[in-house]
Specification:
This protein is mainly alpha-helical. Helix 10 (182-196) runs parallel beside helix 12, helix 41 crosses helix 45 (855-871) and helix 42 (808-817) runs parallel beside helix 44 (840-849).
C-alpha cells in the first residue's frame, strides 16, 4: 500500500536542500509511488504498448477506484496546501507522458474527483494548460475535454482565471503550423467557443471581453488574437456593440460646451489622455464607437476658440503647465490658424463690421498661442513647422499680415523674457522655421506699397517687416545669411524712416507710428523705453496740466485716455511694459499722501486707460492680478484712500464682470477686513466698499465660487450684507443646481452656521418660500417683535434730546460717546419733522460721529420709518413725510439714497410692515423729481465708454449740476458748502451706486406677490432708463424670471415689461432685433392689450438661431461690430443662449407650452431631414442646452414626450448596433436624442430630480420588449455620471431595471430578443459601479426565465456546485468599491 512505502522515505533534508525543497521532493516521491502502485501495467502490455488497441471508454476497474481514493487521501489529508501546485505539476507530467489512453483517462477521472475546492480546481486547470502540447494531438484533445468539464463545475472566479491562462496558452501558438496540428487548434477553438457561449455562460460575456480587450484592442499596434480563435472573438465583439451603444449618450460626439453657460461642475465633459489622444472617459472595456474613443477635435477646438476658456480646457484635459509638447493642442492651434486664414479670404475687408470680426478672431488666436507657449504646454516652433506644411497645400494669402502679427507677439515677448544663450538659439531656429511661411505667403517680386499710417491696420501690415527687423537687430549675421525679401523692402525702409523721425522729434501724434515703433523696437529694453515713455507723456498731457475732478480735487494730466485701437495694435510685451510703467506711477502713492486726499490723485486719462487695459484678454493672465491685488493690499495696509478709492471705482464700474472667480475672490478677501472695520473709513470710501461688495457678490455666485471660497472669508458683521449673501446663494442653488448634500465640504451648512452665529437673523415667510429645499428653509425662525421697542426707544431718546436742548456739551457727550449714538438719526428725523430745520449742533454731532455712522443707526432709522408709516403715528400725511425724507437725502445729504433704500429692502418685515416698506421705497423713488432729474441727465450719455474720449467731461458736468457731498457740507448754511478736499470721484454717482440696490428692491417686491405687481410696473416705467448702465442686464433678467417664475408666470405683462425695460435698455448699442427674434421684438413693442400666440415657425426660428450660434459661429455676425471684450458676455455663444432663455421665459404663455413648442420645433426639423444624422444630434444638443438653462416647467414637456413615445407601439431592430438603427421608427430615436441632450447638459441637482421622476413615469408604460429597450436606452448612458454625482442612485436604477425585465419576461410568451444586451448592461453596472447584491436582486433574478437566470446568476450570488464553502472568498461581494477587471 502507498502509506507503507511512504514510511521508508527520509524525513531529514539532504545536504544543500532547504526544508521546502525537501518537502516538495518528498511529496512528489510519495505521489509517484501512488501512481506506480495503482497504474502498474503487465509485462505484455508494457512491451507491446504501441500495438495494443485502446478502449475509448474503459470500464471501471479496481485500479481506477484505488487511484481516486489514494489521491484524495494524499491531497486532502497528508499534503499541505502550499505543496499542491508542485505535486499537481508532477502528476500532470506523468499523465502527459503516459502512452496508455485508458490510464490517462483514469488519471483524468481521478483529477475530476478532486474538484471539491476552488484552490484545487485552479491548481489542476493551470497545470493542465501548461502541459498542453500541440504535437500530442490525442492528449491535447483529452486535456481540452477535461478543461471543459472543469468549467462546467468550477466556480466563477476559477473560470475567469482559467480563461485568462487559456488565452496565455493560445497566444503562444505559432501563426504558421503544420497540418497535423490543425485538429488540436480546432479543439482549442471549440473550448473558446464553449466559454464565450452565452447560453452556457460559464463566465459572463462582459469579463470575457474585458480580457480580450485588454490583450488585443485597448491600444493601437497590439497583436490581434490567434487566427484559430479570431472568428469567435469577432463574434463576441459584434455581440457587444449593442451593449456599448446602449451605454452611450446619443450624439455625444456632437455635444458642445459653452464657456459661461454650460455646467462647469459636471465631470461628463472630462477627457482622458488615451494613447496621446484626448477622448471621452468611458468606463468599461466595451467596443464603444470610434467617434468617442478618438480625439475630440470638434469639442476641443470649439472650447479653445471661446474667450476665457483656458481654465475650462485645463480642467477638461488635465493639462499641467510645464508639461511640454502637447501635440493635440498644437494641432488644434494650427487648424485654428487655417480657419482664420480662410475667414480672411471670405470677408470683405472694406466693410468695417467684417474687418472687426476677423480682427477679434486673430486677437483671440494670438492670446492662446502666447498663453500656452509661455506656460510650456506647446512649442512654438512645432506650430510653425506644422503650419508651413499645411499652408503649402493651400492658396491662402489674405490673412498673412495677421499671421505675422501673431508671430510678432511671440518673438517680441520671447526675446524680452529672461533666458540664456540656448533660448536665444531656439528663437533663431524659430525664425528659420518662419522663413518657410515667409516664402509661401510673400511670393511677390515687387515691393509692397507703403501702408496708411492713419489706419490701425497699418500696424498689422508692418508686422512681417517688424519681425524681420527684430532679427536683423538681434542677430547681425542674419543680413549675410539671407537678403531682405523684396516684398518687404518698402516696409523695412518705412520702419527706418519712422525710427529716424522719432529720434529727431518729428513724430506725428495723429497716426499709428508710435505703436509701430513699439512693436519693432521691442528687442532691447532701451530701444523700447523711448516710445513707451512717449506714449505715457502723451497720455498725461503737457507738463503742469491741471484737471479738475469731482469732490474738489485737482489732478495733473490729461482727461483723454489712450484709444482702444492703439492698445490693440501694441504687441503683448510693449503693452505689458506700458501698463507696468503706469503701475509704477500708481504704486508710489501708496507710500505717501495718506493723510492728504487731494494729493496723489491719478489723472482721469490714466484711470480710464488702466481700465481699458485690464479688460483686454492678452493682459488678463499677465497683469490683472499684479495691478489689482498687489496694489489693493498695500493701499489698504497704508490707508492710502485716494488710490484705494480709484482702484475700487475701476473694479466696480469697469472690470469686475471681466474678472475670473479667483481674482474676484482675492478682491473679496481684501475687502472683508475693511467691511468689518468700516468705522475707520471715510463715508465716501465706505460707500464705495459696500457698493463693490454688493456687485462682487452678485457677479461671483457661481458653482466655481462654491468650490473656491471659505465661507468664513465672506461672512461679515453686517446683517444686511449677510442677507444679500444668503439670497444670492439661494438663487445660485436654484438656478445652477448645486447640490448641497453632495458638496465635498458641505459648504452650505458651514456658511449658514457661520452667518447665523455672526449676525442672528430671521426671514419672512414670503422670502423663504422661494428658497431651495434644505438647510435654507430653516431660516424662518420666530424672533422677538422689535416694533414697539424701536418706537418706544426713539420716543424716549427724542424726549431726552429736548430735555437737554439748551446744553450743547451734554448733547455732544450723550450722542457722541454713549449708546444713544445708535438712535441719533431717529432723533434728527423727529426733530426735523417738528421744526423743519436742522440746527448746527446736529452738524457738529454728525461730523464727530461720521466715522461711526454705523449700520445700526441706519437699521434703527429704517425700522422707525416703516413702523411709523404702518401705525399712522405721524401728524403729517404720507406725502409730507416723503418730502421731509427727501430733504434729508437730497437737500441736506444726511443719508444717501442707495444706503437707506438698501437697508430698508434688506430688513425683515412681515405682513403689512413689508408692504409698507416697499410702498415707502416706491414713494421715495417716484413721488419727487430729484432722482428722476438725475436720470434724465444720464439717459443720453453714451455707455460704450471704451470708444469715448470725453467721458470725463460729461462726468464732471453731471457732478457740477448735481454735486454730491460726503462730509455734511450741504447742511452748513453759513458759510456756503465747504470746499474741503475729499477723495476724487472718477466714475461713481448716486444713480450708478443705486443700480445693484434697485435689483434687490425688484426682487423684494416680487416676494410680496400680487400686491406689488403694479408697483413693479410703475417703478420700471419711472426708473427704466437707469438700466442703460447695468453691468449684466440679460443675466439679471434671466435670474429674475427663473428664480421668481412661480409668481411671474401669472403676469405675462410684467415679464414683458422686465425684458423690454431692463434687457432692452440699450437700443442704440444693442438693438432688440439682434438680441431676439423679429416676432418677439414685435411683441415687445406692441400695445399691452395685443394678444400673441407663438407659432411653430417661431419656435423653429428661435431654435435655429441657437444652433447657428453654437455650430457655425464664424458664419454668423450676430451683433455686427460689437466688441465682445467689453460686453456682458465675452462671446456670442452665452449671449445668444441667455437672451434666448429670457425670450422664452417672457413669452405670453406658460413654461410648459413654451417647452412643448421647442420640442415640436426640434421634431419637425428632424422629420424634415430624416437621414441627416448630424443634424439630429446638433439640434438635440442645442435644444437640450436651452432647456437645461430654463426652469423645470419647461423641461416637464420632455417627460411628457418620453412617456407619450413609450406608450406607443414600438418596434426594435434585432441587429442594431447604433442609435440610428435601434428602433423601427425614427420618432423614438429623435425623442431619445432630445432626452440625452437635456440630461447631458443638466446640472447634478436637476438631473437627479429628472431621473427620479422619469423612473416613476416610465415603469408605468413598459409593457413589451420594445418599450423595455426604450427604457434601458433612456437611463443606461447616465449611470456613469450618476455614479460620480449621486452614487446612491445607482442601486435604485439597477433594481428598477430588474423589475422591468422581470415584468416583460413574465409577460412575453417568446424569448426576449435582446437578452444578452440587458445582461451585459447589468454586468457592466455591477463591475464598474455596484459590487454588493441585495436580497431583492437575488429574488428577482431567481424568478426570471431560464435564459436570463443562467446569464444573470453571477449577479445574484457566486455559484458553487458543492455544499462545501469555497476556500477563496469572492471579493466582489464583500467589498464596498468596484473591483478591477484587470
Amino acid at each position: 500500500q502507498p502509506h507503507v512505502q511512504m514510511a521508508h522515505l527520509p524525513s531529514v533534508p539532504q545536504q544543500g536542500m532547504s526544508q521546502t525543497e525537501h518537502d516538495i521532493h518528498q511529496s512528489q516521491a510519495r505521489l509517484k509511488d501512488i501512481l506506480r502502485s495503482t497504474l502498474d501495467r503487465s509485462p505484455v502490455e508494457a512491451y507491446f504498448c504501441g500495438f495494443v488497441k485502446q478502449t475509448l471508454v474503459p470500464e471501471p476497474s479496481q485500479s481506477k477506484q484505488s487511484l481516486q481514493t489514494a489521491l484524495r487521501t494524499f491531497f486532502f489529508q497528508t499534503t499541505p496546501k502550499n505543496l499542491w501546485p508542485s505535486c499537481m505539476e508532477c502528476y500532470i507530467k506523468s499523465l502527459v507522458s503516459e502512452h496508455s489512453q485508458e490510464k490517462r483517462m483514469h488519471m483524468f477521472d481521478a483529477l475530476y474527483n478532486l474538484l471539491q475546492d476552488s484552490y484545487m480546481t485552479l491548481c489542476i486547470s493551470l497545470e493542465v494548460l501548461k502541459c498542453l502540447d500541440l504535437k500530442k494531438e490525442q492528449c491535447f484533445r483529452e486535456g481540452i475535454i477535461f478543461l471543459k468539464k472543469i468549467l462546467e463545475r468550477a466556480d466563477y472566479k476559477s473560470n475567469r482565471t482559467i480563461w485568462k491562462y487559456l488565452l496565455n496558452t493560445i497566444d503562444q501558438f505559432p501563426d504558421q503550423v503544420d497540418e497535423s496540428v490543425i485538429p488540436s487548434l480546432q479543439a482549442a477553438s471549440e473550448l473558446v467557443e464553449f466559454i464565450t457561449d452565452r447560453n452556457t455562460a460559464v463566465v459572463p460575456a462582459y469579463p470575457i471581453y474585458h480580457e480580450l480587450h485588454y490583450r488585443y484592442f485597448d491600444s493601437e499596434g497590439k497583436k490581434g488574437p490567434h487566427w484559430c480563435i479570431a472568428k469567435t472573438v469577432h463574434k463576441l465583439h459584434q455581440s457587444l456593440l449593442g451593449t456599448a451603444n446602449m451605454l452611450t449618450v446619443s450624439g455625444l460626439s456632437y455635444m458642445r460646451y459653452i464657456v459661461g453657460a454650460s455646467n462647469p461642475v459636471s465631470k461628463t465633459w472630462n477627457l482622458q489622455h488615451e494613447n496621446r489622444e484626448y477622448c471621452y472617459v468611458l468606463k468599461g472595456s466595451l467596443p464603444f464607437n470610434k467617434s468617442l474613443t478618438s480625439r475630440q477635435e470638434g469639442l476641443l477646438a470649439h472650447i479653445l476658440a471661446q474667450p476665457n476658456s483656458r481654465e475650462t480646457l485645463q480642467v477638461m484635459t488635465q493639462l499641467i503647465s510645464g508639461r511640454q509638447n502637447q501635440p493635440f493642442l498644437e494641432d488644434l492651434l494650427v487648424d485654428w490658424v487655417l480657419e482664420a486664414m480662410e475667414l480672411s479670404e471670405r470677408i470683405d475687408w472694406s466693410i468695417p463690421e467684417q474687418r472687426k470680426q476677423a480682427a477679434a478672431v486673430w486677437r483671440q488666436l494670438a492670446t492662446n498661442l502666447l498663453y500656452h507657449h509661455f506656460n510650456h504646454i506647446i512649442i512654438f516652433s512645432h506650430i510653425l513647422q506644422k503650419l508651413a506644411d499645411k499652408l503649402i497645400k493651400t492658396s491662402l494669402h489674405k490673412g498673412r499680415d495677421w499671421l505675422m502679427w501673431c508671430a510678432l507677439h511671440y518673438i517680441s515677448a520671447a526675446w524680452n523674457t529672461k533666458g540664456n544663450e540656448t533660448q536665444f538659439t531656439q528663437i533663431l531656429n524659430d525664425f528659420l522655421s518662419l522663413l518657410k511661411v515667409y516664402d509661401f505667403l510673400y511670393p511677390e517680386t515687387e515691393a509692397l506699397p507703403y501702408p496708411d499710417l492713419t489706419d490701425p491696420y497699418c500696424v498689422v501690415q508692418l508686422a512681417a517687416a517688424s519681425v524681420w527687423s527684430l532679427f536683423i537687430t538681434k542677430a547681425e549675421t542674419m543680413r549675410n545669411f539671407r537678403p531682405i525679401p523684396i516684398a518687404l523692402k518698402n516696409h523695412i525702409e518705412l520702419l527706418d524712416q519712422l525710427q529716424k523721425s522719432f529720434i529727431d522729434g518729428e513724430t506725428n501724434q495723429s497716426d499709428f507710428s508710435i505703436p509701430v515703433l513699439c512693436n519693432a523696437c521691442g528687442v532691447y529694453p532701451e530701444g523700447l523705453d523711448a516710445p513707451i515713455i512717449y506714449l505715457i507723456n502723451a497720455l498725461c498731457g503737457p507738463t503742469g496740466t491741471q484737471t479738475p475732478v469731482p469732490q474738489g480735487c485737482v489732478t495733473l494730466g490729461s482727461t483723454v485716455p489712450m484709444s482702444i485701437d492703439i492698445l490693440d495694435t501694441l504687441c503683448m510685451f510693449p503693452k505689458f511694459s506700458f501698463i507696468n510703467k503706469i503701475r509704477r506711477q500708481i504704486m508710489p502713492t501708496t507710500d505717501s499722501h495718506a493723510n492728504d486726499p487731494s494729493q496723489g490723485c491719478m489723472s482721469p486719462g490714466v484711470i480710464e486707460t488702466v481700465s481699458r487695459s485690464l479688460v483686454l484678454p492678452d493682459m488678463e493672465w499677465v497683469s490683472v492680478k499684479a495691478i489689482l491685488l498687489q496694489t489693493l493690499s498695500p493701499c489698504i495696509q497704508n490707508s492710502v484712500w485716494p488710490t484705494l478709492s480709484s482702484l475700487l471705482e475701476i473694479i466696480s464700474y469697469r472690470v469686475h464682470k471681466h474678472l475670473s472667480t479667483p481674482t474676484n475672490l482675492g478682491i473679496l478677501n481684501n475687502l472683508a477686513p475693511l467691511m468689518k472695520t468700516s468705522a475707520v473709513l471715510p463715508t465716501q470710501l465706505k460707500l464705495s466698499v459696500e457698493n463693490l461688495f454688493i456687485r462682487l457678490i452678485q457677479a461671483s455666485m457661481t458653482p466655481d465660487f462654491f468650490r473656491s471660497v471659505d465661507p468664513k472669508q465672506i461672512v461679515l458683521d453686517s446683517e444686511e450684507m449677510n442677507r444679500l449673501l444668503i439670497r444670492t446663494v439661494a438663487q445660485t442653488i436654484n438656478i445652477t443646481g448645486i447640490h448641497p448634500e453632495t458638496h465635498p465640504l458641505n459648504w452650505l451648512e458651514i456658511f449658514l452656521r457661520v452667518t447665523i452665529t455672526t449676525t442672528p437673523m430671521s426671514w419672512s415667510q414670503t422670502a423663504i418660500a422661494y428658497f431651495p429645499a434644505g438647510p435654507l428653509q430653516a431660516l424662518h425662525r420666530p424672533q422677538q417683535d422689535q416694533k414697539l421697542i424701536v418706537l418706544q426707544r426713539a420716543e424716549e431718546e427724542y424726549r431726552r434730546w429736548r430735555s437737554i436742548a439748551n446744553n450743547e456739551n451734554e448733547q455732544l457727550r450723550v450722542y457722541c460717546e454713549t449708546e444713544a449714538t445708535d438712535m441719533f438719526l431717529c432723533v434728527l428725523w423727529k426733530n426735523y419733522l417738528d421744526t423743519n430745520m436742522i440746527p448746527p449742533i446736529f452738524v457738529r454731532i454728525l461730523e464727530r460721529t461720521a466715522a461711526q455712522l454705523s449700520a445700526r443707526q441706519l437699521r434703527y432709522f429704517s425700522d422707525l420709518l416703516v413702523y411709523e408709516f404702518t401705525g399712522n403715528n405721524q401728524r403729517l400725511t404720507n406725502e409730507q413725510v416723503i418730502y421731509k425724507l427727501n430733504d434729508l437725502i437730497w437737500k441736506y445729504q444726511v443719508v444717501h439714497l442707495d444706503r437707506i433704500v438698501f437697508y430698508m429692502a434688506s430688513r425683515k418685515y412681515d405682513g403689512r410692515d413689508g408692504q409698507t416698506c416697499l410702498m415707502l421705497i416706491q414713494l421715495l423713488l417716484m413721488l419727487t423729481q430729484d432722482f428722476k432729474n438725475r436720470l434724465e441727465v444720464l439717459k443720453d450719455k453714451a455707455i460704450s465708454f471704451w470708444t469715448q474720449n470725453n467721458w470725463h467731461q460729461s462726468h464732471v458736468s453731471y457732478h457740477q449740476q448735481f454735486p454730491e457731498y460726503f462730509n455734511y457740507e450741504a447742511m452748513q448754511q453759513q458759510p456756503p458748502p465747504s470746499t474741503k478736499p475729499s477723495i476724487p470721484v472718477y466714475y461713481s454717482n448716486v444713480c450708478l451706486r443705486f443700480l445693484p440696490v434697485l435689483d434687490l428692491v425688484v426682487h423684494c417686491f416680487l416676494e410680496l406677490g400680487q400686491h406689488a405687481i403694479q408697483s413693479i410696473m410703475a417703478l420700471l416705467d419711472h426708473l427704466g432708463s437707469i438700466y442703460r448702465f447695468h453691468d449684466h442686464p440679460i443675466g439679471y433678467v434671466y435670474i429674475t424670471l427663473n428664480y421668481y417664475e412661480r409668481i411671474l408666470i401669472e403676469y405675462p405683462q410684467l415679464r414683458k415689461k422686465l425684458v423690454s425695460v431692463i434687457a432692452g435698455a440699450l437700443p442704440e448699442h444693442r438693438p432688440l432685433q439682434r438680441m431676439y427674434t423679429s416676432e418677439f421684438c414685435d411683441y415687445l413693442m406692441a400695445p399691452e392689450d395685443r394678444y400673441w400666440q407663438p407659432s411653430l415657425q417661431y419656435y423653429q426660428k428661435a431654435l435655429h438661431r441657437v444652433v447657428e450660434a453654437i455650430y457655425r459661429p464664424m458664419e454668423n455676425n450676430l451683433l455686427g461690430s460689437c466688441d465682445w471684450r467689453f460686453e456682458e458676455y465675452h462671446s456670442p455663444l452665452p449671449f445668444v443662449l441667455y437672451s434666448s432663455c429670457v425670450e422664452l421665459m417672457a413669452l405670453p404663455q406658460k413654461g410648459q407650452l413654451a417647452g412643448k413648442g421647442l420640442i415640436d420645433a426640434f421634431l419637425t426639423r428632424c422629420n424634415s431631414m430624416p437621414d441627416n444624422e448630424k443634424e439630429v444630434w446638433t439640434y438635440s444638443s442645442a435644444v437640450g442646452l436651452l432647456l437645461s438653462l430654463l426652469p423645470e416647467t419647461f423641461r416637464s414637456s420632455v417627460n411628457e414626450e418620453i412617456i407619450s413615445t413609450a406608450h406607443q407601439t414600438l418596434s426594435v431592430n434585432p441587429d442594431a448596433s447604433s442609435d440610428w438603427d435601434l428602433f423601427g421608427d425614427r420618432q423614438s430615436i429623435y425623442v431619445l436624442a432630445l432626452l440625452h441632450g437635456l440630461w447631458h447638459h443638466l446640472n447634478a441637482k436637476h438631473l437627479l430630480e429628472s431621473v427620479r421622476k422619469m423612473l416613476v413615469d416610465v415603469k408605468r408604460c413598459v409593457k413589451n420588449e420594445a418599450q423595455l429597450v426604450f427604457a434601458f436606452k433612456a437611463f443606461a448612458p447616465f449611470i456613469q455620471r450618476l455614479s460620480l454625482e449621486n452614487p446612491s442612485m445607482i442601486p435604485e436604477i439597477v433594481l428598477e431595471f430588474l423589475r422591468l425585465l422581470q415584468f416583460v419576461d413574465q409577460k412575453m410568451s417568446s424569448p426576449l430578443i435582446h437578452t444578452d444586451i440587458y445582461c451585459d448592461v447589468l454586468y457592466h453596472i455591477k463591475y464598474m459601479y455596484v459590487c454588493e447584491s441585495s436580497e431583492e436582486v437575488e429574488r428577482i433574478i431567481n424568478s426570471l426565465s431560464v435564459p436570463l437566470k443562467v446569464r444573470l446568476r453571477f449577479i445574484a450570488s457566486p455559484p458553487t456546485l458543492t455544499k462545501q464553502q469555497p476556500t477563496a472568498p469572492h471579493p466582489q461581494w464583500s467589498q464596498a468599491t468596484p473591483i478591477s477587471l484587470n
